[in-house]
Amino acid sequence: MQPTAMENLMKALIVDDDVVSRIALMDLLSVYGIFDLVEAEDGAAAWDLLAAGLHPVIVFCDVRMPKMSGIALLERMKAEPALAQVPFVLVSSASDRDTVLQAVTLGAVGYILKPLHAAEARAHLEKIFRITLDKLAEDPATTMRRLNIGPDRLAAYLAAFGEQLLAGRPAIVALLDAGEGADARLRIDSVHTGCMTLGLWHVASQLDSARRGLPDARTVAMVLGEVSESVRRQLNRLRAGMPDEGALA
Fold it and tell me: Which SUPFAM superfamilies would you find in this protein's record (predicted)?
């Protein structure tokens, strides 16, 4: 599967044939303001979205559905290299031990029971989000230790990288539109190095995919936009962990 314009850094896919349960989960997730939520009414509809190019950062999926069960969807995703690492959370009233064991064996990162109880569900979700966010980008404290710098310096790195992206994105797209693929790749490589240096793992991977073969201007522009969004989110994570947020305002 190749990246397409459907990809978005923070899309979460919600799969459930019960519309009430689907809406309830979407309402619960929307409170966090982290994800752009995409819904599918069953496993087959979800697979159609994935096959068309949707690459969510996480999937929440019912177990028992017509056409394709949650377990079957999880198996398909694990068999597809481009989707195998997407965190998959099963959401179901099926509490039998065999289903839970099967989900864990297949690589599910979490299992939430319904009907959803807000406090209990939030506790599970926050654990899952910590795992998911760490896969998207390195924890700022870890980045600072790795680079041997303090929070003010990391903030300066991120801000400078953000400015580089703002200026460089149209230039890279213009080079690709003009058929100057080699020069564009050099600039994309520079952005990729910045992502790896700053611990922006997910967008670094997206850039890796986008620059293979003949880069497509539209796809590269989209991924560079995702890099900018990742920088913004990482700055917010850094600021949230600092004792004096005003120093970074």
Answer: CheY-like
Rounded Cα distance between 121 and 164, Å, is 40
DSSP string, 113-158: ESS--HHHHHHHHHHHHHHHHHHHS--HHHHHHHHT--HHHHHHHH
Helix/strand/coil for 1: coil
Query: What is the spatial distance between Cα 43 and Cα 17, in angstroms, rounded to a whole number?
Result: 9
CA 166 to chain centroid, in Å, comes to: 21
Whether the CB-CB separation of 89 and 112 falls below 8 Å is answered with yes
Distance CA 210, CA 200 (A): 16
Sign of the C-alpha dihedral computed for residues 47, 52, 55 and 60 taken in this order? negative
Q: Is the peptide bond before 56 cis (omega within 30 degrees of 0)?
A: no
When computed from its CA atoms, the radius of gyration of the chain, rounded to whole angstroms, is 19
pLDDT, tens only, 92-134: 876 666 777 787 788 888 888 887 777 777 777 777 776 666 6
Tokens of 51: 């096959």
For residue 68, give the 3-state DSSP assignment.
coil
Write the CB contacts of 34 (distance below 8 Å, at least 6 apart in sequence): 10, 12, 129
Each residue's pLDDT tens digit, 90-101: 888 766 667 777
76 phi, psi to nearest 5 deg: -65, -45
Question: Which of 89, 48, 51, 97 lies closest to 70 in space, CA to CA?
Answer: 89
